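Many introductory courses stop at the sequence. We go one step further.
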Amino acid sequence: MATSLKYFLEISDIDKNYLPSKKILSIGSNIIGTNYIPKNIAKKLNIDEKFSNNEIKKIRKAKKNNDLTSYYKTNKELLNYIVKNMGYESYEDADINEFADNYLNLNDENLPNNLKNKKFGVIFESGTSNYATNILNAYKNISNLCTVGTKVISVSEPNTFNRYPLKPSPNFTIDYFAKNGFKVNKSQIIDNNIQGSKVADLNIHIQYKERYLTQYFNFGYFIKHILYQILNNFFWHKENSYIEAKSYHLINNNNFKNYLKKYPNKKIFEILRKFFKKIFNIFYGKFNKTGRCELFFVFEKIKDIEPSIKNCSHSSLFYNFENKK
């Protein structure tokens, strides 16, 4: 998972005097989600452009060398440098790995003792909750990390298909937080460019069941999105192996390798793909996929109540609306 520059641009505009704390907590040990920080963004964040980009190079090198200690350490030092230069006190993360500042398994029923008495002004939630098998416990734990005034900044992926993330609908996420003591400060579709530009407001539609993602786009962004889909299909990495769904029940103890099958290797296509990918890399780099969109939320806690699914709508908003009619 990655923490994009959008998070830091968002917190740069927050009035810190109204936060319950100037500490920031990331749900998950997330890496900084960019290959470089442009001069204009570095200036807005009040950080040194050259120093920050040199640190990003160190992070990438550590990952390439599989040096996990340096990878997490350098990343956390950089993120602390960024937030402290913006006037915040600290940046911490919470995860199940040995490098995290705080232990947190989002699937658990309750928060661990080490987090129960801590106060945070901002929570970064970059889609980590979507990877928890029990997403209701994940949302509950995130809610319980907040006190009145805490802001939760969340980005999630609406495009990918057949990955592990549960990807709840935006209506569900909004309904859960709004019914459990939060208000919605922002609900948007944003571009996956380096600054996370707003594409459209993400509103709640209740009269029609089908509301396709592309219906939110203006014509210009729709063309960008089509270009992204074309490049994604032809030039991005392709899976070289798979597991048949019919064999999945035979897998025990995560022993996936015994059931892997290979796709046919098309060498000529791979050579052409790598060649054209370099040409289009300016539009479609690893951390800047123009035309790929994401869902962006900012929730703010306004009531101190015990979070529960019982507080939420007991069916989809569409069916609630239909039944009440």
